[in-house]
Amino acid sequence: MFSSSNSIFLVHSFFPASQLKASRPKKAYFPGKISASYTATENRVFTSTNMASSSPASLYDVLGISMGASGNEIKAAYRKLARTCHPDVVSMNQKETSANEFMKIHSAYSTLSDPSKRAQYDRQLHGHSRRSPLTSSNIASMSGYRPRYSHSGMNWETDQCW
Amino acid sequence: MAEASYTVASDSETIGEDKSSAFPEIAIGIDIGTSQCSVAVWNGSEVELLKNTRNQKIMRSYVTFKDDTPSGGVSSQLSQEHDLLSGATIFNMKRLIGRVDTDPVVHSSKNLPFLVQTLDIGVRPFIAALVNNMWRSTTPEEVLAIFLVELRVMAEAQLKRPIRNVVLTVPVSFSRFQLTRIERACAMAGLHVLRLMPEPTAVALLYGQQQQQSSHDNMGSGSEKIALIFNMGAGYCDVAVTATAGGVSQIKALAGSTIGGEDLLQNMMHYLLPESQTLFKTHGIKEIKSMALLRVATEDAIHRLSSQISVQIDLDLGDGLKINKVINRDEFEEVNRKVFVKCESLIIQCLQDAKVEVEDVNDVIVVGGCSYIPKVKNLVASMFNGKELYNGVNPLEAAVRGAAVEGAVASGINDPFGNLDLLTIQATPLAIGIRADGNNFVPVIPRNTTMPARRDLVFTTCHDNQTEALIIVYEGEEKKAEENHLLGYFKVVGIPEAPKGVPEINVCMDIDAANVLRVLVGVVMPGSRQPTIPIMEVRMPTVDDGHGWCVEALNRKCGNTQDLVTVQKKV
């Protein structure tokens, strides 16, 4: 089933690329002390295995929306994608890939549908790449410097998104 | 297609579904409640509840053991009351399934008018019916299977086709181990479980379908609607918050507890006859009869209190034991105050988890047998500032109707009018995690995580040169590990010797599209990019019926030598 992959983690679909990209925002909807403690190591260790970067990079790309999308547009995009990508609606032999796909979509949605998480994400996206969001988010996750930003709150800049 | 003729399905895998049939079989929906059960099916244009030969849509969930042929509430024509008084009738099995004999819920079932015996050693309780002055032992799975067979036969007779695939509704608070017991009961009845749906999510799906239909009718924009579903039956109370638009229902939060009509009934029986517990301890023929009489009379009184302000109870339990009492509604509500407080707290918790304010809720749906109790309706309504409750669903049929809709959707049935163009995005009802940081439960997948889900967390050793680590997997909400449901355990060996805190032990939990939970553990040493030992993958739950004291045994054997701690944040 996973024969195309050569990494041991991916063989087990252990930490797929999608998860890593979204791993930082995950922190916020996982309240409690645990989440804060594990984000630091997670990226460092496992990003290296393989960034199967066939997927679009920014969370906006994942949902197929523009960066200025409204809350309702985000919701609508998420529902639309869920209707085609959720494991319950695909055929039997696609369940596994669609589960991964859907987790990625949901992860993007849960970040972008939360104003503060979205603001934080936008800042990260802007601040670290003028070139292209694709490289920036990959580098961000690979070099493991994301946690440094995890405690910055909202400011006037990010508030403007809303 | 049929190339894999020599493969053997792994013991831990369920057998794949048969995809060969050109016409998809529509899975039926079954609601096996603690006290009542029903079956429904999508008939091509709408949901239809199936009736038994006595023209009943809702049947009692009980099995009467007579000689060698047990018969259930679906087909049995006999007077239930008589069998109940003789101790031959077993019921309430949904409260007992998958529980060990140290469970308080099992203990509170000991005053049922049949035998529920506990040894308090963490094994399954001994359950038996009195047949011809002999205790005939049975199990919750067997009892459920008996009436599942009856439901199947009934459905097959009406639909004129063999039935195999089913969608069942289950309580939110069921652990994954309990779900395996339900699957076992279905397998015993020759049924294949296509999906197990938490009860309020089945109602959510039905609600989603209704919203979809009405937005078609109005040509409306189909804006998002948020509903709170409160479902209280005889055995369990469940709450869900769902957001629905365009046929997609997203379960935002779930909350559930083992409280229900049975608790109301027991509290009332205790109120009417405080010494009943000790009086009926011996479980002789006479005691069984008295217990059953008290139960029937109290249940009847509670039902009548839904429409009357007070009821008169006149009861002769034999041996000079008589009850003559007037019970009014206030008394009933006071006796059960704790149950109602718990109901409120479940609603509050569910709203908080869903991050939804009371004002954001468009519809409040109250279903289940207890929804007929004025206090239940009032307490829910008052939490939503007296909002009128949603009246678009039948309280007793909502769950089974939702299950039937899901059965059609999951069977891949298309409806030309788009009535099955539906999707429910489910969330995990309970957190899943491992024991770490001493005796704490550390969730890896928190509750109300959208499924399918994959989460991971890094742990480390708590002793220098610790080469082995015990992974004990629990499901639940309690802080202390052992207060949660045990799902399984295994040991990671071959961790390279290193000072404590150095090896990184990655615990990943994956719930796939079929709601199968896998726990994966990999060990990585700093500086390395590859796991130092093969990753372990274990499908959970692995525990069996007698798991009550496994962890104590493990503690005795290993102490804390193989414990783990969460990785502390480096500031």
UniProtKB/TrEMBL annotation, chain A:
Q: Where is the composition biased (Basic and acidic residues)?
A: 115-125
What residue spans carry the region label Disordered? 113-142
Q: Where is the composition biased (Polar residues)?
A: 132-141
Domain spans labelled J: 58-125
PROSITE patterns, per this entry?
A: DNAJ_1 (PS00636), DNAJ_2 (PS50076)
SUPFAM superfamilies linked to this entry: Chaperone J-domain (SSF46565)
Descriptive protein name: J domain-containing protein
- Organism source for this protein? Acacia crassicarpa (northern wattle)
UniProtKB/TrEMBL annotation, chain B:
By its UniProt entry, which InterPro entries does this protein fall under? ATPase_NBD, HSP70_peptide-bd_sf, Hsp_70_fam
Keyword line: ATP-binding, Nucleotide-binding
One Pfam family this chain carries? HSP70
Q: Which GO terms describe its molecular function?
A: ATP binding; ATP-dependent protein folding chaperone
Q: Which family does it belong to?
A: Belongs to the heat shock protein 70 family.
Put simply, this protein is called Heat shock 70 kDa protein 8
Organism of derivation: Acacia crassicarpa
Q: What is the lineage of its organism?
A: Eukaryota, Viridiplantae, Streptophyta, Embryophyta, Tracheophyta
